[in-house]
Amino acid sequence: MPARVSEALVLRTYPLKEADLVVSFLSRDQGKLRGVAKRARRPKSAFGSGLERLSHVRMAYFQRESRELVNLDGCELIQSQFGLVSDYATSVALDYFAEASELLLPAAEPSEKFFRLLLAVLESLRPAAGEENGRSGRVWRAVTYFSFWAVRLSGWLPELHACLNCGSYLDDPESPERAFFSRDRAGLICDPCRRALGAGNSWELSRESRAIAGDILRQPVAQLASGGWTQETAADLRRFLVQQMESHADRRLVTIRMLESG
Ligand SMILES: [Zn+2]
To answer: What is the Å distance from ligand 1's center to 192 Cα?
Structure first.
C-alpha cells in the first residue's frame, strides 16, 4: 500500500513499549483511525508536538488491509491548540471534545461533517482581536453546540417537538407544553405523561433551551452570540445530550463532569 497523507485531528494517545505511542485520530477522508507512532516519545521525533490532543495535522501513514493499526510516518502541524489551553475551562472543554469523539465515532467510517464540527468549535474558542473577555461564554457555547451536533451526527438526536409517549406537540406557540427527559428514555415527554408514568428521576428541558437547540440546528457556532452565555445557559440541554450519548454508547463521559463541576 502506498503512503497516505490525511488531514487529521489527534484524539488521544497511549504509550506503547519504551518510546512509541498509539495514536487515535480523526482523519478527514477515512474517519477515525488508530496507528502506531514509532519513537514518538523520543526527542526530535518525526511527530514533533503534532500529537497533542486535537492538534490539527497532516498525518502521513501506511495502511495495511490485514492490520487494525496503521503505521504512522510523521505529521506536519497545521494548527496546535496550545494557545487555547491557557485557562482550565477551555482545556477541559478540549478534553471533552476529544473524549466524546473517541467514544462516539465508529472506526474507519468517513465523517467529514464531524471533522468540520470539531474545526468549527475549536475556531469558535479563539478570541477575535480585542475580544479577550467573554472566554467563559465561548466555552459554554462551544460545548453545547458540539454536544448537540455530535449527538445528531451520530443519529441519536430524538424528536424534540413531540411527546415520546402520547405524541402531543410540545411547541404549539398558543400553548407550549413543558418537556421532561430522563436517563432511560430516548426523547422528551410532556408533563401529563410524566405524572401518569410515575416517579423516577426526570429533568425539565426548558423552553429557552429548546429554542437554543433550534438556533444550534440552523446556525453556525460562530453566529450564535457568545456574549450572553454562562454555565447556566442551556445546562439542561447539555445534560439531556450527554445522557443520550452515554445511554447509546453505554459508557460515562468523565470530562464533561469535570467541566460542569469546575
Ligand atoms: Zn405526552
So the answer is: 6
